[in-house]
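Data deposition worksheet. Section B asks for the primary sequence of the deposited chain exactly as it was used as input, without tags or linkers unless they were present during the calculation. Section C holds the resulting structure in token form. Section D is free text for depositor observations; keep each observation to a single sentence. Incomplete worksheets are returned to the depositor.
Section A, Depositor: J.P.
Section B:
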Amino acid sequence: MHHPLLPPQLNLSRVLRARAALIALLLTGLPLTGCSSSDTQPSAMRATESDAICERQWLLDTLSVDGREHKSRMFWQKMWRDRPYLGCDKLGFVRGSAGSNPYLGKFQLSDSGTIEWLKPPKISRMVGRRNSSELEKDFLLALPRVNHAHARGDTLVLEGDDGTRLEFKQTGEVPPPSR
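Section C:
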């Protein structure tokens, strides 16, 4: 659908992506507080693989935790609000939807891909919180167990020493917020 205030050759998703990139650029100029590094930016967040991870939006493709597996289904493709996704920023905040409800956490990601959770992901406070599905419960159980990340092309893999594994696929669109 064409927005009446935009020229016909621009689409709304391009404008929104450009706006998000501009906001991210402006935020990177702000001094960071609470970081253990003496630089203005933690070493784990400088032009490394973490940039490739934190500058993208990731949709859950498969999840394995405690012997249970969840694999992408057609239902996930159709219902954005029920498909877990992950995003992070240069400050180390990890956020997204666990499937039924939004979550927020904080990690430190080293240049080698090692993850240290400073605040394990938890469902964010919100009005009208929805009941958690089995997928959401397993997603929130698995995420804080991962301690290593690596991205290859459009795939992000998060792994834990106990066999926990989450695979994500990159997406160009950001899912709408959970309601």
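Section D:
The first helix runs from residue 12 to 28.
The beta strands are 57-65, 68-71, 85-88, 93-97, 102-109, 115-123, 148-152, 155-159, 165-171.
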